[in-house]
Amino acid sequence: MIPNVLSIAGTDPSGGAGIQADLKAFSANGAYGMAVVTALVAQTTTGVREVREVPAGFVATQLETLLDDVRPDAVKIGMLGDAEVILAVASVLDRYAPPHVVLDPVMVAKSGDRLLAPRAVGVLRDELLPRVDLITPNLPEAADLLGEPELGAVGELPDQARRLTELGAKRVLLKGGHLSGEASADVLVADGEAEFLRDERISTTNDHGTGCTLSAAIAALRPQRPDWSTAAHEAKRYLTAALAAASRLDVGRGHGPVHHFHTWW
Ligand SMILES: Nc1ncnc2c1ncn2[C@@H]1O[C@H](COP(=O)(O)OP(=O)(O)OP(=O)(O)O)[C@@H](O)[C@H]1O
Ligand SMILES: Cc1ncc(CO)c(N)n1
């Protein structure tokens, strides 16, 4: 059976990040996609112009309406925007206990614009991290969650990922996309064990939504694969291919999107 996978996230009208990217990544990775919108974001490849939050009560109503009818096989959580929405999502997770929950702790867009209120970082750390199966922070997000300086070297990733599990996250995929070097390396830590996910670094400015794509692909693949490690390695390969395929796109003047392609078979 095709897995039903839910994204809880904000929007990107240019289709590169957020809900729009998640739905494409779900489809391309063999899942049926569903979405609950948490914030309307006026953004494109060049940056964010304005954000309108969806009231927390209505995020909860969207989730309850959906979950009373459909049981998802996995959930990906992205931009939540503020503390009230975080608490609403945490409470719904408690009541419905969906399997395979991935949290991308979105805080700042590639353009530098904030997508999470600074005072909500502690609420995300204390109320949501312990309730999900995997978190996928980038380096600035990991530093913010731990109150540490941002890492500058690949070799430091495993120890920082382990410290994130000490905050209550069951598993951590710490993304090294902001580092330079020949390879693009991330680290996955579960049960104290660390393993690297390495792939070639693609030379491109079409890197808008890479984080959304990776976490969405993991959520889509997890119900179809035996464990988190297999799903994460495969999602990483999918992202590298989508980054390489981005050279065929001509979208916007800034950080362009990756290309989610389907193999018809
Ligand atoms: N040029 C690249 N080539 C290959 N992989 C990359 C490249 N840039 C980023 N990645 C990979 O993309 C994923 C996302 O990494 P990154 O650290 O950029 O996340 P992010 O900052 O959350 O992304 P975004 O905010 O744009 O969605 C990681 O797996 C990272 O290794
Ligand atoms: C809605 C949304 N979520 C996440 C990101 C991070 O790239 C973004 N730019 N927009």
Short description:
Helices cover 35% and strands 22% of the residues. The chain has 265 residues and is α/β, with parallel strands linked by helices.
| Rg, nearest Å | 17 Å
Mean pLDDT: 96
Compressed to H and E, one letter per element, the order equals: EHEEHEHEHEHHEEEHH
- When the domains are counted, the total is 1
Q: Can you tell me the residue ranges where pLDDT is under 50 for at least 5 consecutive residues? A: none
Cross-sheet strand order for the largest sheet: 3-2-1-4-5-6
Categorize the overall geometry: globular
CATH architecture: 3-Layer(aba) Sandwich
GO molecular function, one term: hydroxymethylpyrimidine kinase activity
Function: Catalyzes the phosphorylation of hydroxymethylpyrimidine phosphate (HMP-P) to HMP-PP, and of HMP to HMP-P.
Catalytic activity: 4-amino-2-methyl-5-(phosphooxymethyl)pyrimidine + ATP = 4-amino-2-methyl-5-(diphosphooxymethyl)pyrimidine + ADP; 4-amino-5-hydroxymethyl-2-methylpyrimidine + ATP = 4-amino-2-methyl-5-(phosphooxymethyl)pyrimidine + ADP + H(+)
Pfam family, one: Phos_pyr_kin
